[in-house]
Structures are given as structure tokens and as C-alpha cells.
Amino acid sequence: YAITTSATVDGDLILVSNGTYTEHLVFSTKTLTVASMYYITSDPADITNTVIDGSYTGTVVTFSIDATLMGFTIKRGHSTGSGGGIAVAECSPVLSHLIVRNSWAAVNGGGIYMAYGSPMLSTVTTVHNTATYGGGVYMETATPTVAAMTIDSNSAVQRGGGMYMNTSTPLLSNTTVQYNSASLGGGVYID
Fold it and tell me: Which of 20, 25, 139, 187 has the lowest tally of Cβ within 10 angstroms?
């Protein structure tokens, strides 16, 4: 509700208390920062204790505008298209200190789907996500900057269990890809 209310304006910070929130966030009109208490405390427990649960009823977080999401566990997303946990389209948000887990997409990016943008990802973990292509992460014509990312135990039916890069040029640093599986490119598939 705080994202769409007229009381918020571009540049606002919305702090979220620990808890589990069953909902779907859509960043489409305002360049907000939405953060758990991790923003203040730097305590990793705030990441695991502040959960956005998609309840397998759609993409959990959708970005079509530059915004910032920090300090959450994103789980149980379900997309009949692309982006089960997080979907980023034609924008460049900041995704920081997140765990994206147990999400599914019928096509691309069970955990995270990025297309036609330059998002920044820092200290993000994708774990136990599934898709046809790019179980953990799928990039399509994207140029993300990725630092301190862990892509662990994701799976793809076809290609890129951990990560699928389709005409994308990411800048990757300190990124761990492990224990992922797919028919082709269990860890990373580049197309």
C-alpha cells in the first residue's frame, strides 16, 4: 500500500518491520527505496526475518521503474511467463542484500528475470528456484552490475540452471555459482 499511496513521492524511504508479508510489490510509478530494518541495523537476521511471500500466486516483486529494494527474503513466487521471484523490465533498479528462494517461472528466470536494463545487484542470493531457462537468474539484452552474488541449488528444465545470459553483458564480481542443474549449462548458459 505504501508504494502506491499518494502520500509517497519520488525519493522516499519506506522502512518495513520484521515479519512475513503475503503480497506482491509493483514498482511502476515512483523511484522509492523499500528496505527492511537491515537498512538501519546491518544485521543479516533482518534479511531472513523480513519476508515477502508471493504464496505462489504471481511474481513477488516487479520493477518497471528505477527503485531500490534492500534487506528482504523474497519467496514462493510463481509466474506463467518470466520472473517468479523478481521481474525487471526496461529499467535499472538497485537490488541489495536479498535472498530470492523457492520461486518458479514457466519460461525464464525462476528467481530473477532482467530484460533491457542495467540493474545493480549487490549481496543477492538465489536458491532453490526453477524455470525452463535460467532457474536462478535470466538476463535478456541486459547489462547488470553484479557484486557478491550467490547462485545456489537452482534448476532449469532446458538451459542455465544457475544463470542464462541471452545477448547480455553483465559485469560480475565476487559471484559464486554452485550446485545448479539443467539439461545444458547447469551453472551458466551463454547464448
Answer: 20
